[in-house]
């Protein structure tokens, strides 16, 4: 009995030493020991189960913490990179805001000058408008004066026509008087001849013809006086003819001058009417231009007010950007602290993983090694199938579901694109992105990855992860992975 006890104690000591060395894969069966050692073996077995359970949960927790820390650190790096870009862009925005502020200030000054210029132009345009109105009034008065002068010239022309008619009548009368004087001269010549004949006859009569001779002499004198008077009247009539001819010539020239004056007045009237029409048109245009300039002035004034508001908003924006720059600097400082904390957590998680991995929960038998090798080859062949190259979720789900159903020792199977996003995961993955996982990084680089045995976060039992690249004609396009149960 003592020998049996010593042998049982030795066997129990060897098993306990394996547990103490961290290898708790072996199972201790208390019923195989002597009765006096069974209680102790039961306690050791219970302690081994507790250590095994604690180790499994610790490995699951440590692996989850490690994965979470990697994911957080990746997010922190991305946030830090994004913060750097935001800092640069904010600095550029700050410079842009300063440039906008300077531009708005300069634009404000230029708009103020434009407003002053517009006011001056409006005043000048108003003066031109008033001058145009005065010009139109003057043109109207000139047009009225030309109209009156034209009427006067027309009256003069009509008077000249009447004078011309009178001169023509006077010339006709002069011609008649001239004919009458010619008749008188003829009568005077005949009377003179008659008196001469009477004197001759009186001389022949002697004493009896003396009285008749006296009468003949008187008749001769009267004939000579008549001839003299007719000659004088003839000279006077010649002078009258010359005067009438001169008057007719003067009237004719006056009529021509009046006619030319009437034409000139008509032309002047037409020109003044054109000037009046142009003045009215210019006045209307100036009126419209004045209204447009008033609108332009109002719009320019409004633009000046808007630019003033924009300048104030730019100042406020610059202040806000300064605050944002300060906040980003604080954020960068907090991110640095968070990154340091993440690094510390990563060290703690790695230490926990390393510590828990020192405890051997399961011993992979040669048969299990062969199963893992066959699964690696089958997954590699599956990753080359043409149907998986499309990366279509529905196709991947069908193919992977069929593979999972035909392999009872698989806990999970999944596929990812090169961004780490899950295309399909059966059952659903506990993470959104596998980019930080070692198996994904190795497979994404074109390597076939087989992990050491660890505790699965799905079943909380030992498993091995296999990951292989999915490659197409253009190179790697994704990752195919599976968890193999080794319990």
From TrEMBL:
Give the residues annotated as coiled coil.
365-392
**Cellular-component GO terms for this entry:** membrane
Span of domain Methyl-accepting transducer: 85-311
Q: Which GO-annotated molecular functions does the record name?
A: transmembrane signaling receptor activity
Q: Which domain of life is it from?
A: Bacteria
On whether Coiled coil is a keyword of this UniProt record, the answer is yes
Q: Where is the signal peptide?
A: none
What are the UniProt keywords, alphabetically? Coiled coil, Transducer
rRNA processing in keyword set: no
InterPro entries of this UniProt entry? Chemotax_Me-accpt_rcpt, HAMP_dom, MCPsignal_dom, Sensor-like_sf
What PROSITE patterns does the database record attribute to this sequence?
Answer: CHEMOTAXIS_TRANSDUC_2, HAMP
Show where the HAMP domain sits.
Answer: 3-56
Any GO BP annotation: signal transduction
Q: Name one Pfam family in it.
A: MCPsignal
**Hey, which family's this protein in?**
Belongs to the methyl-accepting chemotaxis (MCP) protein family.
Spell out the protein name for this chain.
Methyl-accepting chemotaxis sensory transducer with Cache sensor
């Amino acid at each position: 009995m003592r020998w049996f006890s010593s042998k049982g104690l030795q066997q129990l000591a060897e098993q306990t030493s394996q547990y103490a060395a961290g290898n708790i894969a072996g199972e201790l069966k208390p019923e195989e020991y002597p009765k006096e050692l069974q209680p102790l073996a039961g306690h050791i077995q219970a302690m081994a189960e507790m250590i095994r359970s604690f180790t499994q949960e610790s490995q699951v927790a440590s692996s989850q913490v490690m994965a979470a820390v990697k994911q957080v650190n990746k997010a922190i790096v991305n946030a830090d990179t994004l913060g750097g870009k935001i800092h640069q862009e904010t600095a550029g925005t700050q410079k842009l805001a300063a440039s906008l502020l300077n531009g708005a200030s300069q634009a404000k000054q230029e708009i103020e000058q434009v407003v002053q210029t517009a006011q001056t132009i409006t005043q000048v345009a108003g003066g031109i408008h008033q001058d145009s109105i005065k010009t139109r009034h003057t043109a109207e008065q000139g047009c009225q004066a030309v109209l009156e002068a034209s009427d006067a010239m027309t009256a003069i022309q009509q008077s000249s026509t009447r004078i011309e008619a009178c001169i023509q009548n006077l010339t006709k009368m002069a011609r008649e008087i001239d004919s009458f004087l010619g008749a008188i001269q003829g009568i005077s010549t005949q009377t003179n001849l008659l008196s001469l004949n009477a004197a001759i006859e009186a001389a022949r009569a002697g004493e009896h013809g003396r009285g008749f001779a006296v009468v003949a002499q008187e008749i001769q004198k009267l004939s000579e006086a008549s001839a003299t008077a007719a000659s004088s009247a003839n000279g006077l009539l010649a002078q009258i003819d010359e005067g009438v001819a001169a008057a007719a010539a003067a009237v004719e020239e006056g009529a021509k001058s009046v006619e030319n004056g009437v034409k000139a007045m008509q032309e002047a009237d037409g020109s003044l009417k054109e000037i009046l029409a142009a003045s009215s048109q210019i006045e209307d245009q100036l009126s419209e231009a004045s209204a447009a300039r008033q609108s332009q002035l109002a719009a320019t004034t409004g633009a000046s007010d808007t630019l003033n508001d924009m300048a104030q908003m730019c100042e406020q924006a610059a202040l806000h950007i300064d605050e944002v720059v300060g906040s980003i600097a604080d954020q960068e400082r907090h991110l640095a602290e968070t990154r340091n904390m993440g690094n510390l957590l990563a060290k703690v998680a790695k230490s926990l993983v390393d510590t828990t991995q020192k405890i051997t929960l399961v011993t992979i038998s040669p048969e299990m090694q062969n199963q893992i090798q066959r699964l690696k080859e089958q997954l590699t062949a599956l990753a080359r199938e043409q149907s998986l190259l499309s990366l279509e979720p529905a196709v991947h789900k069908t193919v992977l579901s069929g593979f999972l159903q035909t392999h009872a020792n698989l806990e999970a199977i999944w596929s990812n694109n090169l961004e780490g996003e899950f295309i399909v995961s059966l059952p659903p993955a506990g993470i959104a992105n596998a980019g930080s996982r070692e198996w994904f990084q190795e497979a994404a680089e074109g390597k076939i990855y087989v992990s050491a045995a660890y505790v699965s976060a799905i079943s909380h039992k030992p498993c091995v992860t296999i990951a292989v690249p999915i490659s197409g004609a253009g190179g790697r396009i994704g990752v195919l992975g599976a968890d193999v149960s080794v319990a």
